[in-house]
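Annotators were shown the component list below and the corresponding predicted structure, then asked to write short factual statements about the assembly.
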Amino acid sequence: MKITLIHGQNHKGSTYHIGRLLTDQFKNSEIREFFLPKDLEHFCPGCYQCIEDDKKCPFYEEKKHIMDAIETADILILTTPTYCMRASAPMKAFIDLTFTYWMSHRPRKCMFSKKAVVISTAAGTGTKSAIKDITNALFYWGIPYIKEYGISVQAMCWEQVSDKKKVKIRKDMIKLAETIEKAKVRVGFKTRFMFNIMRMMQLKGMGSGETEKDYWKKMGWLGKGRPWRN
Ligand SMILES: Cc1cc2nc3c(=O)[nH]c(=O)nc-3n(C[C@H](O)[C@H](O)[C@H](O)COP(=O)(O)O)c2cc1C
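Structure shown to annotators:
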């Protein structure tokens, strides 16, 4: 099994450790790990070059490294500390740079069979909205199976987290890994519905242009084909 971890922070605090605790439960897995902003130190400049061709993104090569690992993974684990009730800024910058992967543009077929987990920690409150920033993007990438884990750790770093809380987190990660491993990926109504709206947009020429429409045509999605079917 291939697992790709994307951390919305460079440092190894509570959020990182929880992400690793979960990863460790999947025995014999191949793990690839990226830290933001270290591994993609850019913001989307809004040049729209990617709409024509992903290779025209000024950060294509660096981004490709991460996106290849995402596209070939069975499970994605994204982690972010809660910053001002939302995901970290590097995580948001990364999401912006995946703009063409959204169903409204050129969704990738491989996304419709993946499992993902989003993890966030906060000192007190805000994990729900921080996680939502990420699950929203994953949903629009087409990922049908997304789990969430948010916890208030009452700490500024992993060392400050109480032993009692660490025991609870470890148990939660064992249970979460079992659930994920057993789960069968099924593309649900919400994803199908949204995909069909985007398909109608492309059919009516309301997408971002001819290149995008050609992509949908080439994938067979303007006819009877769907990314979740073989
Ligand atoms: C810039 C910044 C903003 C933060 N905003 C919040 C917040 O909105 N709510 C909260 O409960 N904790 C907030 N915190 C605390 C962290 O979310 C918390 O300590 C978290 O567990 C840190 O994770 P880490 O150890 O992985 O860095 C903030 C911390 C920083 C540095």
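Statements collected:
1. The chain has one domain: 2-185.
2. The chain has eight helices and five strands.
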